[in-house]
Amino acid sequence: MMQTRTTDTRSSSRAIAESEIHAMVDGRLSPAAAAALRERLAHDPEAAATARAWQQQRAELRDLHASVVEQPVPASLVAAADRLARTHERVTAWWRYGGLAASLVLVFGLGWTAGDEWRDWRGPGAYTRLEPAARHFAQQASVAFAVYQPEVRHPVEVTAAQQEHLVQWLSKRLGRPLKVPVLTDQGYELVGGRLLPGEDGARAQFMYQNATGQRVTLYLGAIKAGGGNRETAFRFLSEGPVNNFYWVDGGFGCALSGQLARGALMELAEAAYRQIDPPAAGLKR
Q1: Over the range 179-193, which residues count as b (16 or more CB within 10 Å of their CB) and which as e?
Q2: Whose CA is closest to 136, among 201, 202, 89?
Q3: CB of 221 within 8 A of CB of 198?
Q4: Which tops the pLDDT comparison, 203 or 231?
Q5: Rounded distance between C-alpha atoms, residue 160 and residue 200, angstroms
Q6: How far apart (Å, rounded) are the C-alpha atoms in residues 254 and 218?
Q7: pTM attached to this predicted model
């Protein structure tokens, strides 16, 4: 008895990789390559269904953020980004050339003696002058706050409802166990957090919000440049409408940012500091 052998069209052709579908959906294929892929999809119902789903998802995402794309960039964010770029250039030049003259230019250029104040957490003489990298870290925290604080639908990647997963995920990415401060007594509840890129590795940002919708963010990450293993005093930085309290301990930076008055932000920063890195002695006021 003669047996008839049917040929499976899918098995006789090369399987369609997800990367090919991604490239087509994102418009990264040439017209000829896209046409060839659509021809192959016609013989692969499963891959074709995946392509349609991704195209629909892309369209929905574009519609969701259409109003944001059309809006002008906030003036405060443009100003903060401009200051950050100028400061980065100064820091780079200082590290490249070094020397007393460059150090003096950087000190006065950044306004260390005029714009900020020390907050001594460890007693007289225990603090050291902050390195440029620490201030640069704080400016990055201010920019991150300006970017994500106004978000309505997606202010965080992982919400507070998944706090255990959030902490484990960010701890793994930053390479050290993280502790999320509780600011309930100060009237702020955790919204959630997100992972951000940084020059010295990954950064974590935790967002908090009070009953009136006012938000603050806690920005965390390693600071390797400029002798970052030394401890620093608590320091205040004002970047336009964004105020910032930050400190470095053991090469790890923390910065609390918000559009709050200095005293109100200080109260939150002190509460966060006590839970993240409780000092051996009491706080010095």
Answers
A1: ebbebeebebebbbb
A2: 89
A3: yes
A4: 203
A5: 26
A6: 7
A7: 0.56
